[in-house]
Amino acid sequence: MTIASPSSRSRKRWRAPLQGPALSGLIWQIVVVAIAVAIVAWLWSNAVHNLSVRRISTGFAFLGREAGMPIADTWLPYSPKDTYLRAFLVGIVNTLRVAVIGIVLATAVGTMIGIARLSANWLLSRLAAVYVEVLRDVPLLLQLLFWYVLMQGLPAARMAYRPIEGVYLSNRGLILPAIPLGEGQLRVLAAAALGAVVFYLIRRHLVARQMLDGRPRRAWPYGLLLIVALPAALSWVLGVSWTVTMPELRGFNFVGGLALAPEYFALLIALVTYTSAFIAEIVRSGIQAVPKGQWDAALALGLRRSFVLKQIILPQALRVVIPPMTSQYLNLTKNSSLAVAIGYQDVVSIANTTLNQTGQAIEAIALIMAVFLTISLGISLFMNWYNARIALVER
Amino acid sequence: MSSAADVQNPHSLSQMQPASSAARRALRWLRANLFSSISSCLITLLLIALLAKMLAGLAQWGLRDAVFTVPGNDTSACRAVRGVGACWAVIPEKYRFILFGTYPFDQQWRPAVATLIFIALFFLSTRRSLWGRKLVYLWAIALVLIAVLMWGGVFGMPFVVQDRWGGLPVTLILATFGLAFGFPLGILVALGRRSKLPAIRSLCVLYVELIRGVPLISLLFMASVMFPLFMPDGVNIDKLLRAQIAIVLYAGAYLAEVIRGGLQAVPRGQHEAADALGLSYWRKQRLIILPQAIRHVIPPLVNTFIAFFKDTSLVLIIGIFDLLTTAKTAIIDPAWQSFSVEVYAFVAVIYFAFCFAMSRYSRRLEAEGNPKA
Questions:
Q1: Burial of A4 (0-12, 13-18, 19+ CB in 10 A)
Q2: Helix (H, G, I), strand (E, B) or coil at B343
Q3: Which residues pair with A168 in a beta bridge?
Q4: The whole model's pTM is what?
Q5: Nearest CA in chain A to B199
Q6: Which of B291, B98, B210, B318 is nearest to A348 (CA)?
Q7: What interface predicted TM-score (ipTM) does this complex get?
């Protein structure tokens, strides 16, 4: 608030320090803030009273106690004897596991459907439209329950479907062949990842050189060397074996391989198909937002259609697409909390169990909110950074 | 790979040669749209093969091998075809429960009429001639009428407690009341977020970002387990109402963002002109700014409403009997336990019908908004 001092305007008529819009503005703010504070204080005093009546102690001390809740599907080592804090960490990893893989798959599927929607092939574009319309107009929770029922209706492990050798689909979920990752394998993979980063930098440098003199430079030999050849050599030197273990049926269950639990698999399918329908519409409108002249110009240069789409249209469409895509990614992450309906133990499900076991409702819900606000913030920051990077630099 | 550029208009081709016969036109259409290139041919044939296989399988399951009626509660005929054919007999057996839940059986005409009023209300809301004050009155009357029908206790209708409500009317109530109360809230918050007063602006930003940052489920949990903690002794608010409050708060935050988009689209000159006329802040917003802002964002508002309509199904997790919960409960009955796919399909069709109608309407509005597109 600026308060006009009377001395500086001594010639004018003296005015009250606050009047008109400034005064009413201040009063409005005081009133609204006072109401908000009063409501919060009232709720808080009620809560304190109720908690003391029910003998529930507030605070996060319960996180150090033994959880005693079984978690079936986990990536982190966990046993019911661990603490609530550990259980929460397992839940967060489970949420991230479904969200990150879901985002990647939904983007891939959604982009394909979005392009198919614009295809010149009438049948393909119609089918893509039906896919989008049906999936968008049925609640995600219903789809999730539907997939889960289908999973449960699959044959038992003994009679599992085997679409490809080593892949089993049964009411135990999806079992895939896997390569067990030990220390040696991880080292080689880390080397390949490092190689990919170096390759990316080299490629950027080469593209910058091409921008200067117009001569195209080949980048792929560097990629082959850094990402494939060097790690392979390292693997050979270290003597790391890359044998694929095939899952085997022993008794009533599978041994070996990578198992995706039915709950996880159903949740992943539901999230990916549902979100891909929205992403398809975003991609379609993004491509349609690129002026037709871009197509005409590129085709007039004699470039192939697939090349034009990949190198000229999609990069421009990307700029339009990023902001709505970000909100779809956030939606997918938040929607992963529906896991609680089918018993996949994500962070919400674990918080819910904690709440029922300990009665620490406020703390459990505060933890859920903190986790999701952090994830949302992380995705937003990353996407904003990416958006700024690809934004059109105008002169 | 087929690409976006060769999107062609089949009509322009046929218009060029009006003399060609219908058969030749059809052939030309096929060539242009299904067999324009080798890759297109391959895609078409592959899709036809896939589609034929899927449709055949679906027809076999849903029609040929399906059981449509069974005598009484004897589901042995259904069990015999399990995994091969559908058991549609579950629908005539359970549809009253799925649609209206545990509402007293002989009084179920009341939720049925309430549902029809909802549908009529949605239909009338699409009429441009009613937009404005008339629509507000219409909504107020309809919502009061629905409340009277559902609760009863007057005009010779026996009183029905909220715990007995269920099914489609509950879904419609949660979505519609969520919109009816969330909308004014959203307007206030959107105005607050654009206000020049820092305290009000930051309160509104805090509210919107907090609600939008967390999943609806956590809000519903809050409503079901935390809300009672925050109330003074003796105040016991019904579960349905608590969920409704959570949905209103949730709707308010999302609607506020949509409306804010509309407010940003109103040119500055409109504000200045209103100020020049000496209108007060509220009169300026009510008479000049909001009518224009809301008109801008009607298509996204409809889309937001579709999203709420679907999101109300989440109340299943806190045990409120909406359409999805009644469907899930209907198949707890041991005789019908293994026929959930059929029941889910039935409910999916109901949800789809509502959402599809709304999304069609939203698309039509968008097309009217920019005729060139």
A1: middle
A2: helix
A3: A175
A4: 0.82
A5: A29
A6: B318
A7: 0.84
Domain of residue B108 covers 104-159
- β-partners of residue A248 are A255
Q: From the CB of residue B28, how many other CB atoms can be counted at a distance below 10 Å? A: 15
CA-nearest residue of chain A to B231? A46
- Considering the domain boundaries, does residue B134 fall inside one? yes
Scanning every residue of chain B, which has its alpha carbon at the shortest distance from the alpha carbon of A114? B4
CB-based contact A25 B197, cutoff 8 Å: yes
Hey, of A24, A37, A119, which one would you mutate to test binding to chain B, going by the most B CBs within 10 A of its CB?
A119
> Mutual orientation of helices A84-117 and A122-136 as an angle, nearest 10°?
150
Contacts of A150 in chain B (CB under 8 A): 341
Chain B: closest CA distance from residue A183 (Å) = 38
Q: Does any domain span residue B50?
A: no
Phi and psi, residue A170, nearest 5°? -145, -175
Tokens 């080949």 sit on residue? A218
Search chain B and give the residue with CA nearest A298.
B5
Listing from the earlier edge strand, what are the strands of the sheet with A258-260? A168-170, A173-176, A258-260
Report CB contact under 8 Å: A140, B310.
yes
The answer to whether A25 contacts B6, with C-beta atoms less than 8 Å apart, is no
pLDDT per residue rounded down to tens, chain A (395 residues) = 445 444 444 455 555 555 566 777 788 888 888 898 898 888 888 888 877 777 777 777 777 777 777 777 777 777 777 788 888 888 899 899 899 999 999 999 999 999 898 888 888 899 999 999 999 999 999 999 999 988 887 777 777 777 777 788 887 778 887 777 777 788 888 888 999 999 988 888 888 888 888 777 777 888 888 888 888 888 888 877 777 777 777 766 777 777 788 889 899 999 999 999 999 999 988 888 888 899 899 989 988 877 888 888 888 888 888 888 888 898 899 999 998 888 888 888 888 888 888 877 788 888 888 898 898 888 888 877 887 777 766 55
| Rounded distance between C-alpha atoms, residue B285 and residue B259, angstroms | 13
Q: Which residues of B touch A381 (CB under 8 A)?
A: none
Residues of chain A found within 8 Å of residue B33, distances taken between Cβ atoms: 120-123
User: Which two structure tokens, joined as six digits, stand for B351?
Assistant: 């949800």
Nearest CA distance, B203 vs chain A (angstrom)? 8
Contact B324 A139 (CB under 8 A): yes
In a domain, B112, yes or no: yes
Domain count, chain B: 1
CA distance B158 to chain A (A): 34
Do B51 and A127 make contact, defined as CB atoms within 8 angstroms?
A: yes
Number of residues in chain A: 395
Each residue's pLDDT tens digit, B120-129: 888 888 777 7
Closest-CA distance, A160 to chain B, in angstroms, reads 15
Residues in chain B: 373
DSSP reduced 3-state for A58:
coil
DSSP A178: B
Q: What is the pLDDT of residues A107-140, one digit of tens each?
A: 999 999 998 988 888 888 999 999 999 999 999 9
- The span from the CA of A355 to the CA of A91, in Å, is 14
Asked, for residue B301, whether it belongs to a domain, the answer is no
Q: CB–CB of B229 and A340 under 8 A?
A: no
